[in-house]
Amino acid sequence: MDKKSSSQQRRESLGARSRKRVREILGTAREVFGEKGFEKATMVEIAQRLGTSEATIFTYFGSKRELCMEVLRRWYYEISADLEREVPLVNGFRARLHFVIRKHLMHLIEEGTGICALVLSEGRNVDEEFSDLITDIKRRYTSPLMAALVAAQKSGEIRRDIPLRLMRDMVYGSMEHILWSHIYSGFLADVDLTASRLSDMLWRAFMPPDQPAEALAQLHAEVADALHRYEQNEAEK
Amino acid sequence: MDKKSSSQQRRESLGARSRKRVREILGTAREVFGEKGFEKATMVEIAQRLGTSEATIFTYFGSKRELCMEVLRRWYYEISADLEREVPLVNGFRARLHFVIRKHLMHLIEEGTGICALVLSEGRNVDEEFSDLITDIKRRYTSPLMAALVAAQKSGEIRRDIPLRLMRDMVYGSMEHILWSHIYSGFLADVDLTASRLSDMLWRAFMPPDQPAEALAQLHAEVADALHRYEQNEAEK
Amino acid sequence: MDKKSSSQQRRESLGARSRKRVREILGTAREVFGEKGFEKATMVEIAQRLGTSEATIFTYFGSKRELCMEVLRRWYYEISADLEREVPLVNGFRARLHFVIRKHLMHLIEEGTGICALVLSEGRNVDEEFSDLITDIKRRYTSPLMAALVAAQKSGEIRRDIPLRLMRDMVYGSMEHILWSHIYSGFLADVDLTASRLSDMLWRAFMPPDQPAEALAQLHAEVADALHRYEQNEAEK
Amino acid sequence: MDKKSSSQQRRESLGARSRKRVREILGTAREVFGEKGFEKATMVEIAQRLGTSEATIFTYFGSKRELCMEVLRRWYYEISADLEREVPLVNGFRARLHFVIRKHLMHLIEEGTGICALVLSEGRNVDEEFSDLITDIKRRYTSPLMAALVAAQKSGEIRRDIPLRLMRDMVYGSMEHILWSHIYSGFLADVDLTASRLSDMLWRAFMPPDQPAEALAQLHAEVADALHRYEQNEAEK
DNA sequence: TATGAATGAGGGTTCATTCAT
DNA sequence: CATGAATGAACCCTCATTCAT
User: Fold this and answer.
1) Distance CA A55, CA A46 (A)
2) Which class would CATH give D65-206?
């Protein structure tokens, strides 16, 4: 709270040019942290890629750790905000699952998985202070899916005898490994296809063991619901 | 290939006492790398736990990286050898899947997941030299499961329309995330139960879909999709 | 003499508003240097407390050191001017001594001893340039007491067989240590009482010894010394 | 307790060469810290004067601060041990005071006052951990004089209406200023003479205001005591 | 005149690695 | 074969100082 004050406070008063600089630094830092991981990334490399000196970075961020956390925070913020807004608009668990998976895969293919891996592998061995932040980030990031899982359990779309945590780990774990394979082999031709296959399989995995009737009833309810909403819309015109 | 040769060769021609020394060093190194990760582990700490000096370790291993790789190699060798021998003895894909998952989870719970995390987080950003080794290690490690998948596809126990790689990633990815959750929360009360649940769900995921239910699911998906698009259109008006 | 000239000259020709700015800066700098000492004080902190930027300070003062010196110069100027005016008005050495001591202690207790410590701990290791300034500052500061000592020696109020420098060092050294004790323990309940006690003791110390008591003391010392030597001789046998 | 372990523990096992190295480092560090003060002293300078690299120093001392503390500890240990042994052997407060002052001045003339000043000026603004050490060092260092003061108060040799702390500050403060003067002016021709003058004046300062009779009685008592001891010694032969 | 921004120069500290004994 | 000791090379971080605007 005291040691960082100088650089910290300077950043508070961000002029227009300043804000741009912050973005540049975060962009480059994201690259480097993503490629190298936290430990192997060096401030000097980030600075060099930016074409500035290390000191400049410390003008905006109090420490390497802080910079990295901000990178993570923003990265997750972007996708989390999207998911929180969009997932609830999708109807039915299966569609939601597919939506989340597709979004996640596409986002990661573009951005690289480095940043994502950071959250996993750097999460431990970190000062209490940041450990909390990471926990928050992860919670928020996975919460749209968790909410979908909760809803689906309630509606009977998925099994009720499995902890949600386990399902969540299956979803994110599968995707992560897929992306690792992609990185190593450079092979992941069709993201859409992969997303469809994965969500299909996971949906089957989560589906209540033997309930075609259940599924039919669910479909009926959804159609009825949609019609109801549709009619209300028409009435209001 | 040249730099290592000296220590490598030194290690080749070892007496009985020396072989014991190597084992001791590897054992301690496994502990430390597992607890701290590659970057945060230090040669001093390994040496201290061993009760010797750092220089002694360098008598047997050419570098920190080389030591770490040997640790990984042996760790995976052990479990791989087990799996290669035992998996074929198990009958039926479902049982094999459960066997592999249970073995993996139990092994990691016992040994700490550190070693496992190493392979994943250290796998990238490594000199070309070691990158190949890691690829080999992983290939061998997953090969019993791959073989089981191949057999199961042939026998019709699992779907034939999904790349094996994708299934493999689901298996290992899920387990990995489960273990990370475990590390963070310290919570994984019943390994057996988790193994059963996970293998059950993955088995369902891989199982060939039965046709009527499949048709229903397809319909469901299409209706849901149509509704979604329709509603978005309405919203944008 | 050359490096400073630019900012020095800039400071010479100042409007009324600027003169006020200089005072503000010096006030804040005094605070910060007092609290932290020269090394630990930073220009950023001074600027922040002022609500301006570091660059502004450099508009008025050529360097951190120069600023600090100006702080010291002014601090000592104030008290020196007071002392030069007031001490001669006090009659008798004893009263003068008490006056100087009391003034010094009170001034330092109020202002924090930081500034004072600066002169002592920063006095050495300073560019030749500033070393002279410090010598001057201190000479002027102690000169009222020195004058009083000279007068008192002439009038016979104090011993003539002791160098003035020695007496001066006793006065200021005692006070300094008292103040350090105060800083450490936070304890110096009654400044007036301490000033009285200290001036009383120092006065006795400086007072010409009355002869019979002196003779007795001399005897005492000689006997004690003889005994000591005698006993050591005995012990070594 | 964790961060320092590597270098700390290596120092525990000091071989013969190692112990010598430690002494060399401490010697050079004493010089540099004495000349420059803690802040301005740099590890690189210490290393250069030693003809080694900075890393070598960190092999033996965990941090700059730790090194400095060890310097102080040893410096004070030497003189404190001497004083504790010798002061009680001296009889009578006046002689003891003279003894302490002479010893102190001589020691400091030889070694420079830099180290001594460190204790004063670096004492504050320091981690709690070291603050305690400094307090201990100072307590131990001044305790022989304090004990002498206590005894003298009890025996009536010195005033009872003055806090011991105040007297102690007068003794050490005076000496310190004398030494500063010496350093600046290079002038302190006759240490013995200065010691005599200073102890004489301080003795007068501390002496009970008006008691030639008291002093006489005291002398009588001491002579009687000495005779008594002398006779006992004779009897034991 | 004022300042937001940038940075060169350096400081303390760490650690894998080497080498003489 | 073992090791105590030494160190080069980095790394993170700080801060007085400069300069374009």
Assistant:
1) 11
2) mainly alpha
8 Å CB contact between D137 and D79? no
Q: Which of A113, A170, A185 to mutate to test the interface with B (most CBs of B within 10 A)?
A: A170
Indicate which of B121, B130, B169 best probes the interface with A, i.e. most A CBs within 10 Å of its own CB: B169
Dist. CA C130–CA D128, nearest whole Å: 34
Burial category of A16 from C-beta neighbours within 10 Å (exposed 0-12, middle 13-18, buried 19 and up): exposed
- Which tens digit of pLDDT belongs to each residue from B49-81? 999 999 999 999 999 999 999 998 888 888 899
- Chain A: residue nearest B160 by CA? A197
Angle (CA) C182-C184-C188 rounded to 5° is 20
Rounded CA-CA distance C173/C178 in Å is 9
Report phi then psi at A209, rounded to 5: -40, -50
**What kind of fold does domain C5-206 have according to CATH?**
Tetracycline Repressor; domain 2 (1.10.357)
CA distance C28 to chain D (A): 20
Cα D73 to Cα A104: distance, rounded to the nearest angstrom: 61
Q: How far is C85 from chain D (nearest CA, A)?
A: 26
Structure tokens at D117: 């000043």
Summarised one tens digit per residue, pLDDT across range A122-149 is: 666 666 677 778 888 888 889 999 999 9
**Dihedrals φ, ψ of A39, to 5°?**
-65, -45
CA–centroid distance for B139 within its chain: 10
Angle at A3 between CA D7 and CA D117, to 5 degrees: 65
Residues 40-69 of D with CB under 7 A from strand F: 52-56, 58-60
Does C contact B via 3+ CB–CB distances below 8 Å? Answer: no
Task: Provide the token pair at C99.
Answer: 């006056």
- Residue A174 CA: distances (Å) to CA of A78, A101, A105, A201: 22, 10, 11, 11
Q: Does A94 contact B162 at a Cβ distance shorter than 8 Å?
A: no
CB-contacted nucleotides of strand F (7 Å): 1-20
Question: What is the DSSP track for C31-45?
Answer: HHHHHHHHHH--HHH
The ranges of chain A with pLDDT < 50 are 1-9
Q: Domain A69-206, what architecture?
A: Orthogonal Bundle (1.10)
D9 interfacial to chain B (CB closer than 8 Å): yes
Q: Render pLDDT for B108-164 as a digit per residue (tens, 0 to 9).
A: 777 766 676 676 666 655 666 777 788 888 888 899 999 999 999 998 889 999 999
Distances in Å between the Cα of B65 and the Cα atoms of B38, B42, B51, B127 are: 8, 11, 21, 10
CATH architecture for segment(s) D1-62: Orthogonal Bundle (1.10)
Q: Is the CB of B16 under 7 A from strand F?
A: no
What are the distances in angstroms from CA C107 to CA B190, C97, C103, C178, D228? 72, 15, 6, 14, 53
Write the burial class of residue D147 (CB in 10 Å: 0-12 exposed, 13-18 middle, 19+ buried): middle
pTM, two decimals, is 0.81
What average pLDDT does range D154-170 have in this prediction? 93
Q: Measured between alpha carbons, how far is B19 from A3 in angstroms, rounded to an integer?
A: 51
* H/E stretch holding A19: helix A16-40
* Per-residue pLDDT, B210: 74
Per DSSP, the three-state class of D161 is coil
Q: Does C173 touch chain D (CB under 8 A)?
A: yes
Torsion of CA B55, B57, B60, B63, to 10 degrees: -90
User: Which value, to the nearest 10 degrees, does the dihedral of the CA atoms of residues C30, C34, C37, C42 take?
Assistant: -40
Domain boundaries, chain A: 1-62, 69-206, 211-237
Strand boundaries in chain B, DSSP class E: none
The reply to whether residue C216 touches residue D218, judged by beta carbons under 8 angstroms, is: no
- Å: D19 CA to E21 C1': 18
Q: Distance between CA C220 and CA C226 in Å, rounded?
A: 10
